[in-house]
Design brief:
heterodimer; A: about 200 residues; mainly alpha; two-stranded antiparallel sheet; 2 strands; B: about 290 residues; alpha+beta; nine-stranded antiparallel sheet; six-stranded antiparallel sheet; 4 helices; disordered N terminus
């Protein structure tokens, strides 16, 4: 197999989300240095978008360059599989950007795929109350006390994190509203989004 | 290293890690040219939100929620606007809201990442409007449809649309009364300055950060996202999850490293891909080298 064929095959694997991390790096480097390969990359995305009935976007981000930079600036500390997956997830996202697709959940509470599907045994989370690092500042309200049993199942991990997301939304949305108000054309809308009981107006003062 | 110190170290890292693209604005930065009618309308709309004086009734809707609120703008830039929720069972308490940021640079930033288009609009609260559509130039933001008052530029109605064309939330004035210019405070000192920091992901700049609390706020001039870094609950698995309420996405990610476990939460009116990229920007300290 020639180098060109290997690059094309790597590109296809990247498009299909089947590329391994090392292959990702190599392919992205190849894309960065080869104009024809870049054009092929863009053509493949356009064809795929057309097949999915999507209009070509107006992306102005040099995606593959950005991906490469992300890889270069996120060298893993160790061979910890978590961080390797984090890098892979990052790259996948950037590829998604290139494909002009979004992963926005269509409805609240709909399950999302787990990026980090770690193996392991049953992990009980007993009284999950994190230690807060306030260090003189006003501490955030930590995740609510909860007892969660997480069997070794990606679906259960999804459920745990969806629950955590709801918990953090309730706890932190007031703070976010106070910050977001400065940029909204109708600043009060940021507050209207939040139930009265969850408001934190400290940032607006 | 204590968990508290670890967290601080992690939080402090964010500024150094994501600053790979030093794009810090300074007072000497040139202001862009906002020459086209849609760009001029964008600038007018943003300035109106900071300078117009008004009182009105507003309907806000999102999936499963509808609220009527009365609002009155700040009487001066030192004061705050007042909001009352009319759906409240008892006499609603007043809530305060701030004057938004006003800066030509902010309009430039918005025009850089959104494509504004302008067309004739409908009548909202008895006022003629123009439809200003802000479509993102990339996939890192949402689309906004704004009906702005033809005369004043105030955004009288606005709908935020997701990537699949689904409406996430909207608001619209049912009635509005403007104060005349003569009623304004002559000692008006102007709204809070728009001070953007370094760029984090394309088009998003750090607006504020509190490393002690692990709180970071970024914005593209229109959309805002808040990033919260907390310790991962003991025993919690690594993973991610998200919920969306109206236009507000809450994305959480639990990660572990040699430095310990972290729970990164991103709240914002941003697509999922942006929330993930923002979470990607948080790294343990050892990854600096």
């Amino acid at each position: 197999m020639t180098s060109e064929e290997r690059d094309r095959e790597g590109l296809s694997a990247l498009m299909d989300g089947e590329a391994q991390e090392l292959e990702l790096r190599r392919t992205l480097e190849a894309v960065a240095g080869d104009t024809s390969l870049r054009e092929r990359w863009q053509r493949q995305h356009r064809v795929r978008d057309a097949l999915h009935g999507q209009l070509a976007g107006q992306a102005e981000i040099d995606v593959s360059t950005g991906v490469l930079q992300a890889l270069e600036t996120s060298k893993p500390v160790s061979r910890n599989p978590v961080w390797s997956m984090a890098v892979a997830a990052s790259v996948t996202l950037a590829v998604v950007i290139g494909g002009q697709q979004l992963l926005l959940p269509s409805t609240a509470g709909s399950p999302l795929p787990v990026v980090s599907e770690l193996g392991g045994a049953v992990v009980p989370v007993l009284g999950a109350q994190p230690v807060q690092a306030s260090l003189g500042g006003k501490a955030l309200a930590g995740p609510a006390q909860q007892t969660v049993t997480v069997p070794d199942s990606s679906q259960n991990i999804v459920a745990v994190y969806d629950r955590l997301a709801r918990d953090r939304y309730r706890a932190l949305n007031g703070r976010h509203a106070a910050a977001a108000a400065y940029n909204h054309p109708a600043p009060y809308i940021s507050y209207v989004r939040v139930p009265e009981s969850q408001l934190d107006t400290s940032a607006a003062e | 290293m204590s968990s508290a110190a670890t967290l601080v170290a992690l939080c402090l890292l964010v500024p150094t890690l994501v600053m790979a693209q030093p794009d810090v604005a300074s007072p000497s930065d040139p202001i862009c040219n906002l020459d086209t009618p849609p760009e001029q309308a964008l600038l007018k709309m943003l300035q109106a939100s900071a300078h117009q004086r008004y009182a009105g009734t507003v309907l806000y809707e999102r999936a499963g929620s509808r609220q009527f609120v009365t609002v009155s703008s700040p009487i001066d830039h030192a004061g705050q606007g007042v909001l009352r929720r009319m759906n409240a069972q008892a006499d609603p308490l007043p809530e305060n809201w701030p004057v938004p940021l006003d800066s030509p640079q902010r309009a430039c930033d918005v025009a850089t990442v959104y494509l504004p288009t302008l067309e004739s609009g409908r009548t909202v609260a008895g006022r003629a409007t123009q439809r200003l559509t802000l479509r993102p130039r990339d996939t890192l933001r949402l689309t906004h449809l704004i009906d702005m008052d033809t005369i004043t530029g105030l955004a009288l109605a606005m709908a935020t649309v997701g990537s699949e064309g689904n409406m996430l939330e909207r608001y619209e004035y049912a009635s509005i009364d403007y104060q005349s210019a003569s009623e304004r405070d002559p000692l008006d000192k102007g709204p809070r300055e728009y001070e953007r920091g370094r760029r984090v992901v394309p088009g998003y700049f750090v607006l504020s950060e509190d490393a002690d609390r692990g709180v970071f706020v970024v914005s593209d001039g229109l959309a805002t996202a808040s990033i919260f870094v907390e310790p991962l609950p003991p025993g919690a698995p690594v993973g991610e999850g998200a919920v969306i309420e109206g236009a507000t996405l809450t994305y959480t990610r639990g990660v572990r490293s040699a430095a310990g476990g972290l729970l990164i939460s991103v709240l914002g009116e941003v697509p999922m891909v942006t929330a993930r990229l923002l979470a990607d920007a948080v790294r343990p300290p050892r990854e600096q080298s």
